[in-house]
Amino acid sequence: MGAGQLARMFCLEVIPFGYEVSVYSPEKNSPAAGAGANEFVSEYEDVTALTDFLKKIDALTFEFENIPEIALSTIENFSERTGLKVNPSPDCIRIAQNRWKEKTSFQKAGIPTVNFYPVFKEEDKRSVPSKVKFPCILKTNTMGYDGKGQVKCKTQEELVSALADLKEFNHIVEEFFPFTDEASVILARFEDGTISHFRPSRNVHKNHILDLTFHPGEFPKSVEENLVAYAKKLAETIDYVGVFGIEFFIKGEEILCNEFAPRPHNSGHFSQDSGTISQFALQMRTLCNLPAPKNIPVKAVTMKNILGEDYKPGSVLWNRALENPYYHLHLYGKTEVRNGRKMGHWNYSGPNPESAFVDWG
Ligand code: ADP
Ligand code: MG
User: Fold this and answer.
1) Residue 338: its pLDDT value, please?
2) How far apart are CA 147 and CA 67, in angstroms?
């Protein structure tokens, strides 16, 4: 499900294994089609077209979690009727697409998370501003990505006025956590419960969008162990099968879980040039029941996202990077360039990975 860059990079791993990939999305000439996927172009809500697609495939996974409930229940019912393998389960997608369910699941699993308050009804507009600590962030409960739909509020007045502007009640208010570092773990869980994971990475965001990933993150041993333990705990608690990326805020020894994505994650792209196995290959292996790797040796890689405004093929900077054999370019095949839109990324796998992109802006 979905045909964007994550589906494209999945194709690039899976087709050499002899598999055929089909993608379902409303987009024609999608990034995935450019990498060899058969394209099924229809709205997610089109139950007839979706069912036709499901009849033609042997196993289903997701590159995108913001799929309407009608599509998820169609997939779920079809799978129950026919035995079509669907990983991760629609229930895991439902958790990941709803910040309130997601954070409630973290709490149930004993994973610390930021304090949060739902805004689901008129009454919450009045009660939440007197409960929450400031600064806080008002977020849409569903359909958020890359910081979209977020308003930071420094004072009670700012929150009251942001809440007054809301036209519907499907939001949460989160307390701002003054982290010193952000981290993520990419984890794969197989049908038999086997888990493979990468060491935690350190992530740097710019304007709420991922800018840089340093792998491995080099956190204190105890922090690193806790990050991995929380990732495993989530996977086991919600019986997750497939690959996910889970994001954390860190301050000293304190760790809070922010969110998880039920698919390969932007902060896992380093793995494409880490000389071992990539997160997309792990997604394929979990879906197709191939063996789990015995271990994943670590190689330092730094990833930098290319947003619309940084998309400069042929520029002096890009040509210089391409002359260096350690810079690897991954473009997503998007035809329209927009500011802030993810167009691709660079991976750097050479010496001094921490300084690979310092002058890049
Ligand atoms: P999205 O779903 O858009 O990725 P996130 O909740 O991950 O939304 O927010 C994007 C980024 O905004 C985070 O990686 C972090 O840098 C910042 N951010 C979000 N929520 C908080 C918070 N409660 N405290 C501090 N920073 C936050
Ligand atoms: Mg995020």
Assistant:
1) 95
2) 18
Share of the chain above pLDDT 70, in %: 100
Burial of 27 (0-12, 13-18, 19+ CB in 10 A): middle
CB of 347 closer than 6 A to ligand 1?
A: no
Q: What is the pLDDT of residue 146?
A: 83
Q: Which residue is closest in CA terms to ligand 1's atom 27?
A: 176
Give the amino acid at 202. R
Both tokens of 105, joined, read 């699941």
Q: How much is the pLDDT for 145?
A: 85
Residues with Cβ within 8 Å of 123's Cβ and at least 6 positions away in sequence, in order, are: none
Q: Name the burial class of residue 18, with classes exposed (0-12), middle (13-18) and buried (19+) by CB atoms within 10 angstroms of its CB.
A: exposed
Q: How many residues does the chain have?
A: 361
Question: What average pLDDT does this structure show over 186-208?
Answer: 97
Burial (CB < 10 A; 0-12, 13-18, 19+), residue 184, is buried
Residue 243 host element (H or E): strand 242-251
The best mutation among 146, 208, 247 to test binding of ligand 1, ranked by most ligand atoms within 8 Å of the C-beta, falls on: 208
Q: d(Cα 189, Cα 83) in Å, to the nearest integer?
A: 20
Which residues lie closer than 8 Å to 165 by C-beta, 6 or more apart? none
- In short, whether 176's Cβ falls inside 6 Å of ligand 1 is yes
Query: Counting ligands in written order, which one lies closest to the CA of residue 174?
Result: 1
